Amino acid sequence: MSLIVDVFAARQDNFGYLAHDAGTGRTAAIDAPEAEPIRSALLHRGWRLTDILITHHHGDHIEAIPALKSEFGATVTGPAAEEGKIGGLDRLVEAGDTVLLGESRFEVIATPGHTLGHIVYFEPEGRHLFCGDALFSLGCGRMFEGMPGPMWQGLKRLRALPDETLVYCGHEYSAANARFALSIDPGNETLKTRAAEIEALRAAGKFTIPAQLDIEKAANPFLRADDPYFAQLYGLEDADPAEVFAAIRKAKDNFS
């Protein structure tokens, strides 16, 4: 049976997600940014929350855990490496583990950098990737805790997923990310097409997610740090791609 994904807005610019296993009726919230939008989405769909899958410890991804767990008795799964920073975890997982939601299976992938223990959940049958703040459309999360090498390796793991993978990220940052990407890669035709699509979607009041991973592989500069173009752009022709990634990340941090 298939996995059904409901996408909705939460907080100021978070995405909220419900992942519903059609075969068994089990439903997971991917992260817990805000209780009321999650309740409303459940009510609208007629689903009951059974699980919460957490990607990392930041408050805008875990704030609603206590309220949702109290109301629904949901089982909360999250990164073992961040156990001490996330209250209410029932199951700890790490890279290589599998999480079952009824008949749906999620693979846990390590993506350290935004936080040291950040993980993502990939559902291979339907090719759904719930990536928190590790990867955004045309961007990636700020490197708050990690180092360039491990963060780049985590992004390469995501880049290696099938082209047809649908990317469900934690925030609606696509328009800002497009402006930065175009500033450093103005000749990229795939990027220009995606940027125009994002502009049209936002103008129509629509979400820019899910993104298609094949488009991200071609257009997202943070997934292309090993492209010689960027090494030359930053004068790092002989450097490791992780150093190029760090240069792109620094440029984005300073971009306005």
UniProtKB/TrEMBL annotation:
It comes from Devosia nitrariae. Belongs to the metallo-beta-lactamase superfamily. Glyoxalase II family. Pfam families: HAGH_C, Lactamase_B. Its EC number is 3.1.2.6. Thiolesterase that catalyzes the hydrolysis of S-D-lactoyl-glutathione to form glutathione and D-lactic acid. Monomer. Residues 13-171 form the Metallo-beta-lactamase domain. This is Hydroxyacylglutathione hydrolase. Binds 2 Zn(2+) ions per subunit. Pathway: Secondary metabolite metabolism; methylglyoxal degradation; (R)-lactate from methylglyoxal: step 2/2. Its cofactor is Zn(2+). Keywords: Hydrolase, Metal-binding, Zinc. It catalyses: an S-(2-hydroxyacyl)glutathione + H2O = a 2-hydroxy carboxylate + glutathione + H(+). The gene is gloB. It comes from the Bacteria.
